[in-house]
């Protein structure tokens, strides 16, 4: 995909984890199973401990962005919580090409580690209720099982109550 380099993306993610002195395990996976549901089924991880990092964008001229980390069992509250926090009238998931350009990571591999400086990271409170969670690894070939306490130590991260809601 347009200038994407998996080795560079994964290296940046692992370097960020080391810089945080994070307790983590890198899990090499087949790219065909990068989607969270497919990953959980194939590799035997629960969806409740799997978290998706989603890039959202305000639909304004200045195009504000944020990264949102939510459990795979919940849905991101884009129309209320995200929109309000971004300070925009409308917000949506950033398109794939925009996500790649902003993060240097592929969809289904976007992770909270190694994000660009200045990009806010909002972590749904449900994520940190679990001792360890599985997140993307920057590409579709890597997942990270990480101790969730690290999100409390990240400078750009903020744990947000109500960022995600139960499905339905």
Description:
The protein is α+β, with helices and mostly antiparallel strands and 168 residues long. The chain is 26% helix and 27% strand. The mean pLDDT is 94.
CATH superfamily descriptor: YbaK/aminoacyl-tRNA synthetase-associated domain
Q: Give the overall form.
A: globular
Please compute the radius of gyration using only Cα atoms.
Answer: 15 Å
Per CATH, which architecture? Alpha-Beta Complex
Task: Supply the number of helical segments.
Answer: 5
Q: Which fold name is given in CATH as the topology?
A: YbaK protein
Unreliable segments of 5+ consecutive residues:
none
Keywords:
168 residues, single chain, 5 helices, globular, three-stranded antiparallel β-sheet, five-stranded mixed β-sheet, 10 strands, YbaK protein, alpha+beta
Short structural summary:
The chain has 168 residues and is α+β, with helices and mostly antiparallel strands. It is 26% helix and 27% strand.
Note the topology.
Blueprint: H1 6-19, E1 24-28, H2 36-43, E2 51-58, E3 65-71, E4 75-76, H3 78-86, E5 91-93, H4 96-103, E6 121-124, E7 132-136, E8 142-147, H5 150-153, E9 157-160, E10 164-165
Parallel strand pairs: 3-6, 6-9
Antiparallel strand pairs: 1-8, 2-3, 2-5, 4-10, 7-8
């Amino acid at each position: 995909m347009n200038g994407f380099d998996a080795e560079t993306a994964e290296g940046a993610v692992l370097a960020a984890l080391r810089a945080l002195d994070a307790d983590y395990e890198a899990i090499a996976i087949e790219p065909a199973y990068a989607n969270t549901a497919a990953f959980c089924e194939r590799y035997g991880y629960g969806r409740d401990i799997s978290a998706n990092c989603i890039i959202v964008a305000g639909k304004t001229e200045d195009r504000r962005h944020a990264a949102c980390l939510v459990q795979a069992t919940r849905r991101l509250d884009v129309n209320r919580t995200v929109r309000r926090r971004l300070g925009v009238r409308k917000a949506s998931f950033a398109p794939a090409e925009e996500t790649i350009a902003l993060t240097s990571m592929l969809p289904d591999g976007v992770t909270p580690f190694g994000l660009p400086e200045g990009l806010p990271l909002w972590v749904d409170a449900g994520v940190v209720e679990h001792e360890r969670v599985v997140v993307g690894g920057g590409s579709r070939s890597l997942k990270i099982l990480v101790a969730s306490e690290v999100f409390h130590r990240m400078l750009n991260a903020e744990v947000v109550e109500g960022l995600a809601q139960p499905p339905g």
